[in-house]
Amino acid sequence: MLRLTALLLCFVPSLALANEVDLSPRTWPEGELQRFENLFGAEKPLAESKTGIVVSTTAAAAARAGLEALNRGGSAVDAVMTHALAEITLWASCCVSHAGFMDLMVFEAATGEVHHLNGGWNTVLGEDDPLSIPGDGVPSGRASLVPGFMAGLEAAHGRFGKLPFAALFGPAIYFAEEGFEVLPMLEGMIEMRKEVLSRRPGTKAVFTKEDGSWYVSGDHFSQPELARTLRRVAAEGADYMYQGPWAEKLVAAVQSEGGKMTLEDLKRYEPIWRAPLRSTFRGYDVHATAQPNLGGVNMVEALNLVEQADLGSLGHYTESPEALFRLTRIARLMDIMGTSLTHHVTPTALIERHAPGIATAPPQRTTKAAAKKLWQAMQTDGWDQLNIAAYEWQPDSSSGNHSDAVVAVDAEGNAAALLHTINTALWGTTGIFVDGVAIADSGKYQQTKIARAGPGRRLPVETNPVLITKSGKPVLVSSSIGMGVHEQTFQAIVNVLEYGLDPKAAAESPQVLRPMGGGVDRAMGANAENPAAQAVEEGAFDADLLAKVRAMQQPMQELSPEAAAGWRGYWVGIHVDPQTGIRRGAVSPYFDGWALGQEN
Known about the structure:
This protein is an alpha+beta fold. It is built from 24 helices and 22 strands. A 7-stranded antiparallel sheet has the order 1-21-20-15-14-9-8. It starts with a helix and ends with a strand.
């Protein structure tokens, strides 16, 4: 068993050392924690270091914990995992969970090899009619899938960790036990999801005080149940959550809500190491997530199309109408081939109808020859019709995919790009908590995927952490979250490698957002004027530039900042200068993520 191997290789010898490596704020310089407690709205830095660096989309204090892992001699994997454990705690498991899933890319400096760890969901063995799993926000234990986060964490640490396994949990346990101040964003999310958080008494107890009132901004919030669970995992390994008492409680809770998960589902779960999908871009080597994940396929196809479109020769897309037009075409294709058509029609059927002869199977889509043929097809009237047909659907307002992304490079040149997520609406719909751990219900909008995967199989996802190398060394370490995850990832990579921007400029460059689809989206408050319209944030692009793109027959719709927030992608990236080796990292200017480098 892979988890047992990881335990034998790295966990048991380190038990005696765990207490000697305390990464929690207890060991940070005086006042250091306070620096990172509330950075919403703060100007994001461009971090720079000749040694280690860590960048996260959310939870600056967790990023500081990841930096502490690097400062204590930890690897890039140690840093991203320490961050992830702490970030889940600091965000009260609203968007991420210790029982969620993960997607991880690792560059191994000693060998120059890149590895992909799939810690995704497994479908449930006993679910024999997945198409009947309730959706539309209806609570059902049948929508809970077998989690991969903690098993993936242990597998990654067993192969690439340097610090004791238990040490990674120190900051998360600290924040759970000692607590932290509730910030306005967390208060707003609790207020928005009170109905869900009230469904089960144990869950309501997490978010209410002794007098029964809900936690609000300024209150001190602790999670003692979660702290006890994390201590058990730190001491006993991930099997505590897959074969131990916690696993039994999870199965009982899910079954109490009509679910079909059993202990056998948990016992048989294994993270999967695969060779990543490989391609090239402008002389760089691209390493993306392997199948069955689709994010890597989408990313490689998009970068191949950027070469065909020759964006760099046209000027930056914030200044060149032709460049913005071409970039928009590629972004919309990514969405069509990615996630949006689960609501309407399969990409294969759509392309065969409007652009016959174009490759739609993943292996063929990633070739340079396929990109050349596809780019030619994208100049035709048939492609305009495809753009309209693709978005004649109503977005599902209950299927939010809340996530966190973090990237790191250590002093030895190892790199890690992590995406982990609850993969559903805030705290899900069932409101199940098991000993302080939130249980997702992402099957409520993925019934078709579950049916295609089959019982007890790994569920394909569209997440896309990416590692780009040159001459056997990392050049760009990238991960992204949000509704516009595909669009923002490819735009950020283009900004760094095609246009030569530093990561901060790339992260803050105006975005072409994820297309909205037809009709009104109730959750985001945005109305698509035209199914073929491309969404951008109001004021992000020059009005004359947008007018010229519209004259090219590409409708462009401007959204208010509030509406645009639901369609953005949120990116983290580290660029390693091939000549000097200097690492520079930055994060999109939203949430409370941060970029931190070790002192040189």
